[in-house]
Amino acid sequence: MARVHALKISISGVRGVVGDFLTPQLIESFAKAFGTFAGPGRVNVGRDTRTSGEMLLHAVSAGLLSTGCTPVDLGICPTPSVQIRTKETDAVGGIIITASHNPAQWNALKFVGKNGIFLDEYESRTLVDIYHEGSFRRGADEEIETIRRDPLAIDSHLQKVLDYVDVELIRSKRFKVAFDCCNGAGSLMTPRLLQELGCQLIPLSTEPNGIFPREPEPTPQNLSQLCSTTKLSGADVGFAQDADADRLAIINEYGEAIGEDYTLALAVQFVLSKTPGPVVVNLSTSRAIEDIARQHDCPIYFTKIGESNVIDKILDCGAVVGGEGNGGVMIPAIHPCRDSFIGIALVLQYMAQTGKTLSQLVAEIPRYYMVKKKAALSSDQIFGLMEKLKRQYSGAHIDVTDGIKIFFDDQHGWAHIRPSNTEPILRIMSEAPTLAVAEALNARIFKEAGLPSY
């Protein structure tokens, strides 16, 4: 297989393997570009627990200082905490040092506007153009500040979550909760949240040291320890986060991972039952969300993949809930961002309010099966395959908003094929009412695209 260039610059920021393509020099230059883009003023900088984080923090700070910005170190904290803190302070923007669900050797920069929202496509392109041009603002001597520190990001975020839910109701149930923070940024907030909600804690991997005991992506195959712990301990529920704690996976009382799509489905079901309104999700999200919205007679809107695309539509249509099928729950009333903590709190309140177990709540959601595969390919290979599939299915029911989504209406299923925004890979996802059909659709795409054996 051809070697894939391990640096990715996209709407999701810039990411790569540290010391290989992602160097302190490159990071400093991107920080200069952001300082030039945002203008002088406070820039909040937060990071996850990766061991490369502090090195990159210094590179980011140097770049910001040189453009007349004041870097404010929020320390290790979850991605949504940085976004919320950026909006509620007088910051001109924020930079988050995290590769989120990527392996430990990766790191990245994510860029946040003064509204606490990730840069949109136009803003991201402008930032990248500034980087490539290398025409960075140079701060005057009297503008050069020092690095400041702000330890309140997690405190502020935690309070917003607690204010949104019925804390006393949840406390009255004394839920036993197993949780796995992957030694990531959630380690500093998840135990506090669960304690405030009166839960009995069964913690796994809550040392914020950046040594990940599993792959950070909270997919079922990476959660075997949490599944067994949840079952053997008699916990009511298990929660898993990725390294920066914006995504949430859930384990039922039998020790079974319910799938990331059902994280969002539970949240949407609960929110719409209390506050009906528009729903926004991306094109790779389970059809279960569409079914739930229709049950509540609420409109649903689909966007390209990428958190900023979902957020733009949430703000445009005044959605009450939104998210992505990878475990990203967005509650605009708190902040329009993916937030695993509000996901945890909502699920616990849903269980407390109904008196039902997690498996009973999941059983009430329309059942679909999703298969997610990926293939590491060069950009040229990906482009060629996408064009081939578009030609092949040109007369079918398709959506080419983001890659190509093929609707197999006779089987009540679909397949979505698209380049990743965060990794040099092609993603092939399929969904159907049965696992056999979902797997068959996925295998069909692999075969028709001429990819290696399924």
UniProtKB/TrEMBL annotation:
<dbReference type="InterPro" id="IPR050060">
    <property type="entry name" value="Phosphoglucosamine_mutase"/>
</dbReference>
<dbReference type="InterPro" id="IPR005846">
    <property type="entry name" value="A-D-PHexomutase_a/b/a-III"/>
</dbReference>
<dbReference type="InterPro" id="IPR005845">
    <property type="entry name" value="A-D-PHexomutase_a/b/a-II"/>
</dbReference>
<keyword id="KW-0479">Metal-binding</keyword>
<dbReference type="GO" id="GO:0000287">
    <property type="term" value="F:magnesium ion binding"/>
</dbReference>
<dbReference type="Pfam" id="PF02878">
    <property type="entry name" value="PGM_PMM_I"/>
</dbReference>
<dbReference type="GO" id="GO:0005975">
    <property type="term" value="P:carbohydrate metabolic process"/>
</dbReference>
<keyword id="KW-0413">Isomerase</keyword>
<feature type="domain" description="Alpha-D-phosphohexomutase C-terminal">
    <location>
        <begin position="400"/>
        <end position="447"/>
    </location>
</feature>
<dbReference type="InterPro" id="IPR024086">
    <property type="entry name" value="GlmM_arc-type"/>
</dbReference>
<dbReference type="InterPro" id="IPR016055">
    <property type="entry name" value="A-D-PHexomutase_a/b/a-I/II/III"/>
</dbReference>
<dbReference type="GO" id="GO:0004615">
    <property type="term" value="F:phosphomannomutase activity"/>
</dbReference>
<feature type="domain" description="Alpha-D-phosphohexomutase alpha/beta/alpha">
    <location>
        <begin position="156"/>
        <end position="255"/>
    </location>
</feature>
<dbReference type="InterPro" id="IPR016066">
    <property type="entry name" value="A-D-PHexomutase_CS"/>
</dbReference>
<feature type="domain" description="Alpha-D-phosphohexomutase alpha/beta/alpha">
    <location>
        <begin position="261"/>
        <end position="367"/>
    </location>
</feature>
<dbReference type="Pfam" id="PF00408">
    <property type="entry name" value="PGM_PMM_IV"/>
</dbReference>
<dbReference type="InterPro" id="IPR005844">
    <property type="entry name" value="A-D-PHexomutase_a/b/a-I"/>
</dbReference>
<feature type="domain" description="Alpha-D-phosphohexomutase alpha/beta/alpha">
    <location>
        <begin position="12"/>
        <end position="137"/>
    </location>
</feature>
<dbReference type="InterPro" id="IPR036900">
    <property type="entry name" value="A-D-PHexomutase_C_sf"/>
</dbReference>
<keyword id="KW-0597">Phosphoprotein</keyword>
<dbReference type="InterPro" id="IPR005841">
    <property type="entry name" value="Alpha-D-phosphohexomutase_SF"/>
</dbReference>
<dbReference type="GO" id="GO:0008966">
    <property type="term" value="F:phosphoglucosamine mutase activity"/>
</dbReference>
<dbReference type="GO" id="GO:0006048">
    <property type="term" value="P:UDP-N-acetylglucosamine biosynthetic process"/>
</dbReference>
<dbReference type="GO" id="GO:0009252">
    <property type="term" value="P:peptidoglycan biosynthetic process"/>
</dbReference>
<dbReference type="Pfam" id="PF02880">
    <property type="entry name" value="PGM_PMM_III"/>
</dbReference>
<dbReference type="Pfam" id="PF02879">
    <property type="entry name" value="PGM_PMM_II"/>
</dbReference>
<keyword id="KW-0460">Magnesium</keyword>
<dbReference type="InterPro" id="IPR005843">
    <property type="entry name" value="A-D-PHexomutase_C"/>
</dbReference>
<dbReference type="GO" id="GO:0005829">
    <property type="term" value="C:cytosol"/>
</dbReference>
<comment type="similarity">
    <text>Belongs to the phosphohexose mutase family.</text>
</comment>
<protein>
    <submittedName>
        <fullName>Phosphoglucosamine mutase</fullName>
    </submittedName>
</protein>
